[in-house]
């Protein structure tokens, strides 16, 4: 491309294009009718100075070939800036023909390092589409630049000295599509994220951890996911399973509170005044009493006084929560047996079924006495993950999405 002659030493100094000098420059009207002005700068390689192989870092003495490339740099005075670079391919004695290493341009990239750094900083606070629009770049181009930066910053993850972990699932797409997040609860760092919630889906984490570090794990907090527990037991023989209170209560709400409340609503006659209390009582029965307003507390008291079966369900829910307050396994087991006996004698079929199913998971509840872990940290993270998805307007690249999740939770010192 022919450019009008205009050389400026000041541009070379300000540009800091090491190994190159400015040839011709021109400010032109933007192409494609966009109306944005552009600055074109021709960069010519310095004849003096050594050339460095980009593969091995060794010095090269001869040039294999020279080609011209168009490189984007940061805008100058409100104009899109293009560099017309005479890119040298050196002849390295050890590697053969390789691109020359440049301090301001990565290999095979079409944007300068400082331009890429500006894109990355904006991606931390804006949606990719907004950053792409601001710099007049493609969505994929911006995403790939940010992805490379995240990979350099985050990998590999430090797993030495790990004793406890927490794992939980989160919805990644509509249609029952889930991913698993594994966290170090001590420093709130996301260690690993992967698509799926089955045994084979989380296996790569334990393979990454390695046999010795798997044996060093002492406790794993999780929900009552059988696949999680089986995979942990197969890789981490010394780790105790700790079931999270939040998930147990959520399961109790779905399988006991909802079903008993629905049965009571059907049982009561249309003219019964307590029918309306039962029909609108779901959140009253599920929420902690300490978080209820004064009006709702009065409504809850009226409901429990009017319906004996819902009173049983509510009372046993509160007593079930107390199992996680014990610090001695013997006391927790005694309290469990007492709770189990009351549930089985309640004459409420959903409650009896839940109690019998929960009996197989008592070991994970008792483990909480020694390891007071929970996955509520992960539940809070799920809210931030939803924001990341919303800002991105839907990621099409799992690896990039998971890198962004890890970047959002790097851990605290």
Give an account of the 3D structure.
The protein has about 425 residues and is an alpha/beta fold. It has 17 helices and twelve strands. The protein folds into three domains: about 1-105, no CATH class; about 165-245 and about 375-410, 2-Layer Sandwich (Nucleotidyltransferase, domain 5), CATH 3.30.420.10; about 245-370. Helix 3 (about 130-135) crosses helix 4 (about 140-155) and helix 8 packs antiparallel against helix 12 (about 310-320). The two termini are about 55 Å apart. The model has no long low-confidence stretch (mean pLDDT about 85).
Task: Offer a quick outline of the entry.
With 413 residues, this protein is of the alpha/beta class.
Number of strands: 12
Termini, distance in Å? Answer: 53 Å
Structural class by sheet pairing and helices? alpha/beta
Q: Low-confidence spans: pLDDT under 50, at least 5 residues? A: none
% residues in beta strands: 15-25%
**Integer average pLDDT:** 87
Largest sheet, if any?
5 strands, mixed
Number of domain modules: 3
**Helical residues, percent:** 40-55%
- Spell out the helices and strands N to C: HEEEEEEEHHHEEEHHEHEHHHHHHHHHH
Number of continuous helical runs: 17
- Taken from the alpha-carbon principal axes, the silhouette is elongated
How large, in whole angstroms, is the Cα Rg?
Answer: 31 Å
